[in-house]
Amino acid sequence: MLITPANIQTKVGGYITAVFGDKGAGKSSFFVNTEDVATPLTVANFDRDLSHLLKKYKGGDIDYEVYPANVNMQQAKANCQRFEAQIQRAKKRGGVFAVDNGSAQWDNCKMAWLPAPEKGKIYPKEFGDANSWMRMVHQELEDSALWPIITYPAVEIWQSQSVGTGLYTYEGWKHTDLHLVNSVYLFCAGKPLGVSAVPTEASWPLKYRAQIVDSKLDPTVQGAILDNPRFKDVLDATGLL
Hints:
Elements: E1 16-21, H1 27-32, E2 41-45, H2 51-54, E3 62-66, H3 73-93, E4 96-100, H4 102-113, H5 128-142, E5 147-158, E6 164-170, E7 180-189, E8 207-215, E9 225-227, H6 231-237
Parallel strand pairs: 1-5, 1-7, 2-3, 2-4, 4-5
Antiparallel strand pairs: 5-6, 7-8, 8-9
């Protein structure tokens, strides 16, 4: 089939953004403040309670599902089935689809699909079903018109078991990179590391910031830092809006 480049329609949606950072960096608030990109909002919560943040959403109704942790294999598989159904509902509604967080979701997936380890060891081939499920749901999001956001905790990159690098990445399914278009590191500048035993009153000018770590569609913006970042700012900077 011959096509004319000028007539190619640009795909809208399906571009997965990973958002990672330390606790308190604003990862959950990042997907709550998305009404200026698309509505409504769908949230798959594998993490702690979000009710206090979801009350601040300004884009209408939210499709909100909680996926409990500390489950057995049967319950974990039920979580996976509910998540698949939530994606299908979201594809009909459109808008933003948020997973909070991807690391906890991967833990649930492993509980659902990995066999009980013998002598504490799981062989690589036994990850086949878990990897296939994760790949399937990521592809469902990629093929959709949704705006997917997946949050992750930040984890330090280690040179060895005892030597760190001082550099951070996101913790989760190791094949995540294959499906991401953007990854963004959120951090809070100005937050003290601790307080003195007898503190005096102080003013801490906290600044919530983000660094664009990866952008597959526009690598020239990698390394850019955004102040008070919103999802729209990231999409604008990376050429997706």
